[in-house]
Amino acid sequence: MQPASAGIDTAGVTALLHRGRTLPQAELRSAVARLASPMDTVAAYHFGWIDAEGRPADGDGGKAVRPALALLSAEAAGAAPETGVPGAVAVELVHNFSLLHDDLMDGDEQRRHRDTVWKVHGPAQAILVGDALFALAGEILLELGTPEAARATRRLTAATRALIDGQAQDISFEHRERVDVAECLEMEGNKTGALLACSASIGAVLGGADETAADALHAYGHHLGLAFQAVDDVLGIWGDPQSTGKLTWSDLRQRKKSLPVVAALAAGGPAAERLGELLAADAKKSAAEFEDFDEAEFATRAALIEEAGGRSWTEAEARRRHEVAVRALDGVDMPAGVRAQFTDLADFVVERRR
Could you tell me which residue, 186 or 179, shows the higher pLDDT? Predict the structure, then answer.
């Protein structure tokens, strides 16, 4: 991505994300404390509140984009940010449900510069705690007992189902020789766009916004999610491990058909043809054979993707989705300061490094 533009209120985005991380924190911890032992402890480890030995820790809790959006969307509806706290907690619980399961399915041993839950506590606990967080998300909303809570819950459950669909698509792509760009965008719209779309609208729904305004914020979040995932896909191949917390060539190691890969294959030309030959051979290898690859082999694939134009196409797609997301805000009558925060957050998503 290009360096951050001078127009972004970096301090404002930092404050917005900090609020998304801290304002819902007490309710998030209270929700996790409902879990039966040892799931409460395992979840606390995942969230970075304790270390592997159970001692208090101040771990990296992630970027907090989703809860930040939930609080901001409440303000878009003219409500206080606190109105969006149950929505912020709910989307954060669903997001972390997906991370727990994704790490296990992908075999990822590191997240946020620490061993993943399945690595420390075992696969069974990763599955159970993920399931429990998903159930908690619905409880948190429905306990409000309002019509707005029921509307918010419908949006959250639809987003969760789409997220799971996207993960299933993503896994199926790993063992296919070819995936077209439209299929990849559909998968990423489900896997990432759906929950960000829910996050951008759930606070407004809790704040009493009508469906027209909520749908416009949903569109903003959906396209922002596609921009977010496009950036993730670039970082998944070329990101600095010190920033991302993942291994070099992370997505190539997992044989992911991410946007740079799919766009490169679709571009045609010698680099695309050679890449296609290598990936077709990779798809036939066992996991054990693939793990024997050395760094040079992954570097070769990354270079071919870049030569075929996959990296530049994906970066351009991130910028395009960013523009569509910002235009969607025109469908909502909101305070100018709140609109500016939505715009700055979109800029941050496209220009981030981790």
Answer: 186
